[in-house]
Design brief:
Helix 1 links the parallel strand 3 and strand 4. 30% of the residues lie in helices and 16% in strands. The chain contains three helices and six strands; from the N terminus they run E-E-E-H-E-H-E-H-E. The protein has a four-stranded parallel sheet, with no helix packed on it. It has a two-stranded antiparallel sheet with strand order 1-2. By secondary structure, the protein is of the alpha/beta class.
Length: 128
């Protein structure tokens, strides 16, 4: 696998990453297998902006024992209590609800931290 270095942190990020937008269409076992396969082949960048909260448990299982091999990104911009985009965007939630939403994702995945966060706002969605 080829990697790029993030200058500010020195972290090495695989040039191929794995997103989560459609993985939840698979069975739990298929999701875990695909994620572990990616890790085993040097992919270390995982974007957890899922189309469904169903994927989070599979990521949690696949990351168990592999957390040091995974750089995990999540997005501010969805309600991670459900994993769904578009129902009630995170920027419309109170600070307390927003924090609870992100913490619920972290809790489901059974990790203590995220490597990266990306902000999705009304102006960043739709290219404005």
């Amino acid at each position: 696998m080829e990697y790029r270095t993030i200058k500010k942190t020195g972290q090495k990020v695989s040039v191929i990453g794995m997103g989560a937008s459609s993985i939840a269409e698979s069975s739990h076992e298929e999701m875990v297998s695909a994620i572990r396969h990616a890790i085993d082949h040097g992919i270390n960048y995982f974007d957890l902006a899922a189309g469904s909260a169903k994927a989070y448990a599979a990521y949690g299982e696949a990351f168990a024992g592999n957390r040091d091999k995974a750089l995990i990104q999540d997005h501010f911009g969805a309600d991670y209590r459900t994993g769904e985009y578009g129902c009630r965007p995170i920027w419309m939630l109170s600070g307390r609800a927003w924090n609870g939403s992100l913490n619920s994702c972290i809790r489901i995945i059974s990790i203590s931290d995220l490597s990266f966060l990306s902000k999705k706002t009304p102006t960043s969605i739709g290219g404005r």
